[in-house]
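Onboarding guide, step 5: your first structure request.
Type a short instruction followed by the sequence, for example:

Predict the 3D structure of this protein.
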Amino acid sequence: KIEIENSISAQILYEMKTINSILYSNNEGVKNICNGHYNAAKKAFRAALVGLKECEDQQQEVQNGLKLPCHEANCPLIIEACDMTSFDRVSRTDNEDAQHYIYRNALMVSTDPKTDCDSLYPMLGPGLTAIVVFNLSLANHYNEYRRKRASSNLKKVIKTYSKAWEALHNDSLLLEKYSMYREMMIFAMLNNMGTLFHQMADYQKAKRCFTALRNAFQSKTSGVQALRRDAHYGIAMNGMALNALFIDQPSTASAA
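The system replies with structure tokens like these:
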């Protein structure tokens, strides 16, 4: 019993150290996005993902089939979106996609300094993974939009968004306690993937994204209602709503 307790204590100390390094890497990535250093941002987000994988492996190794206790109420996260309002529209003007609204506000995450949790990863891991992959998607998207890239590069961005979507739906923490941020991540991914598909001339997939986005806007959940009341996110939702309403497949006449 003493050996098991010592193993659990060692895991807790390891997870606290690792979670802190994960948060640091994620937040450094967000700062790099805000400063226009996209490659550095991607490197930081990937470092955070490596830390999350190490934490998961450590948990599986030490746990040995035991369910470690975790008190959710004592493990709050502090989530903030960086303000990229001035960068919300891409600077390129060589095609119509330059006028599409792209959501780019990456999420910074911290924990309360007074956090007291028996085991951090089981509760925080899936939500942090979703946030970090989401941020990585934004960095990839912004970087690709700044340059003239082939559709194969844009497909890689969509693949990253898809991984963020999957990670978000494997999480319960954001759903239960941070629904406003979760809803905005969903809106942002549908919007941004829709603009990417449109740029790639895959109009059917773009239409499906924007149809899903319009349906999501009509939701009466507390998260959506909170977004509507928030001044900054309200502006972002307006930009995405315009995409959902007006981006369509080019007509034959205009194409000619």
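Each response can be followed by summary notes, for example: Residues 1-15, 62-73, 86-97, 252-256 have pLDDT under 50 and may be disordered.
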